[in-house]
C-alpha cells in the first residue's frame, strides 16, 4: 500500500513545481469573452474603481460574486493572490450534506445542493455533482437520538430523510460493517461535487454577468475613512471601492488585521487529513451513499472506484500562519502516525478496504471558528467590510447558501432569514487573540464529530472575563457557563447537594433538583443572581440630542420623566429587532442602556453608526464599570430596605423605575425595579470597586429573609414560564414587535418617526403572519422522555406551523414550557394568512421531540392576553 502512495506523491511534487512557475497575471471578464478556464496573460493595470472588491477566488468568494451578479450588481471585482480555486477549494473533499445540528446550516446546505445540481445546465461547466445520498451512522442510542433530532427539522423543511435500521444500512452500502450500529440517518438527496469545478462554474456565470476577476493579485491593505471602506491596496496598485468582501480563507484573519482599523475575524487553520485509494478489485459504485461515522470520527465517499476518507481526530495539529503566507496550497507533509487512528476506524467500519491499495494521503489546511459555525456578515468596526470565512471543513456544503446570504446582505442591507448564529458580531474582540484561537481550534476540531448534546461547554479560553464576585461565588459552589467569553453562574451546588459529573444529556439533567430549589427561593423568598455580563452603555448629550437620537432608534417613546425605565426595541428598516434593551433616563440628556450579553458588539455597532456627525452625543461602554446583581423574589424589597437603611415598599418603588441609592458605606448604586424574569425584585448596578462589599452586606442582611445564590438556569426557567422572550433566542433581526406580542411598546399613537415605523404600519395593515405563542407539554414525562431544547417542530391540527425558540421546565407549572412562532397557511395554495387570536387559541397543538413522538400541548393563559 505504501509503495503506491509514495509513487503518487513524487508525481504530485512535479506538478506543484510547474504550478509555481506559472505566475503571469490572468484577467477574466472585461469583455475578453474568456472564462476562467481560458484566461490569458495580460499586462494591463487593474481597474481604478469597483463598487465591490472580493478578496479570495475559492468556492466561497466566487459564490459571493455569482450571487451578487444574479442580483444585478455588475461592478464587482474579484482578486485572488494565487490562481482561482488554488486555496482550500483545490483539496476539498467535496461532500455536500444537510445532516447538521444547526438548522440554518442545514438550510444553507440544502440550497447549495440544489444549486450545484442545476449549475452545469446554467453554465455549461461540469460541476461533478452526483446525488449519492448520505448515511450518518449511530454507534449509541444517544447518537441515534441526536440524528432523530436532525431528521425532525429536515423533514418539516421538505428535505427527504429517514431513520434506518442496521439491516437497511447494509442494503444501501454493502461495504459498511453494522454490528455495532444502533441505526442511521439517511438523506437520499445529499451528494458529492468537485469543488474546483463548482468554483469554475461560479466564476464562469459571474463573468458572463459582468464580474471581473484577476488572479496573481494580492490584497495587502484595506483603506478606511470615517469608519467606512474606501479602497484596497494590492501589489499592483490601489482600487477605490464602496464594499470589500474578505473571503480569504485561512488568510482572512491576517487580512482583517491589515485594515486601517483592524477587523477581528476569529478563525485558525488546522491540518486536515484524508486518504484516496486505488479502485477496489470490484470497484465501488459511484452512486453509493457518502458515509458519515461521527462516533468513529470519519467520513467516506466514493472516488473513482475506490474511496476518499478523512476525519476529525482527537489531537488536531494547528498551523501557524504568522508571517508571509504561501500563495497557493500544497499538500502539507503527510503524517501516517497522526492519521493512524482514523485509518484504524476506517478499516473497522469497512473491513473490505484492507485489501485496497492506498493512492495517497492528503494533508491540507482547513480554517475553523471558535464555535464550529462559519463567520458571515458585516464587520461591527468598519462599515461595508463584509466577511465570509471559517467554513469548518464544510465549504462545499455551505458555499452556495452562504454566498447567497452575504450577497443579500450587501445588496439589501439584510438577509432573507435570520443569520445570528453565524453573524460575525457574535464574537467578543477578546476571542480574536491568536493564543486563544490556537488553543480553541484544538478543541473545536474533535467536537465537529464528537458533538451530541445541546449546551456543551467549551473548556478552552475560560475565565477570560469574570465578575469581581467570581472567586467568592466559585467558593460557594457556583458551576459556570460562558457567554461572549464572560463567565456566568449556571447554578450553585451547596453543602449536601450534588450535581454528579455535570454530564450533558438529552434527558432529565443532574442539576434538576438544585435549580428547582433556586426557583422556589425566587418565588417564595429572595435570590441573588450575578448578571454582570449584561451589556451596559451610557448615551449623553448636553441638550436633547441624545433623546432625539433614541426617539429615532427606539420604537417606544423615550421622552419620559427622569428615573423612568423603558423596555424597548431598536428596529431595522424592516421593523425587526436589531437590539432589545431596557433604557433608564438618568437625567435630561443622560441615558443608561442595558441589553443582553451577546448584544454587546452588535449593540455598540448599531448605536455608534447612528451617532450625530457633529459629536453632540457621546456613547460610552460602561459594562466593566458596574457589577449587576439581580435580586429576585417577594422579599427582595425587604432586603433592599435593610441594605439601604430606608424603609421601602412596592408603592414607593414602582415597577420600571431607576433610582440612585446609597447602601451601607457605598453610594452611586443604580437600582432598577425589574428582574428580566417577570418576577418582583430589583437589579443593582454597583460600581465595581464596591461590588464585593455590597454582595457581602446583602448576603448578611438577607440571611434572615432566606436569601440564597442562584444562577442563569433558574432565570431561564422563570422568564420562559412568564412568557418573557429574550433576544437571540425568541427575538432576532427578522422578528417584529407585532409578532412577539409587543405592539403596546410601539409609539403608533405618537407623531414621532422611528426606524421601522413604515414597515410596522404596513404589517399592521396587511396582518401579522406569524406570532409568538407559549405552549405547555401535558403528555410528557420529565423523568423518562427527552427534553425539548428549541427548534422542535410545532403542529396545529396535524399541520406543521412553526418551531419552538426556547424551552425549559417550569417548576411552578410542573411541566415543560415552550415558546415558539406559528404561521397560518392556506390549505389549498400554501399562501401565508394572518395569525389571529382565534387561530392561536382554537387549535390542537403537538410538539415533535427527537422525531419519533409527538406530545399534546395546551396553550398557557399568557398567550391569550
Automatic annotation (TrEMBL):
InterPro entries: FAD-dep_OxRdtase, FAD/NAD-bd_sf, FAO_M, GcvT/YgfZ_C, GcvT_C, GCVT_N, TrmE/GcvT-like. Residues 469-749 form the GCVT N-terminal domain. Residues 51-409 form the FAD dependent oxidoreductase domain. Coiled coil: none annotated. It comes from the Eukaryota. One of its GO terms (cellular component) is mitochondrial matrix. Residues 413-467 form the FAD dependent oxidoreductase central domain. Residues 770-835 form the Aminomethyltransferase C-terminal domain. Belongs to the GcvT family. This is Pyruvate dehydrogenase phosphatase regulatory subunit. It comes from Eptatretus burgeri.
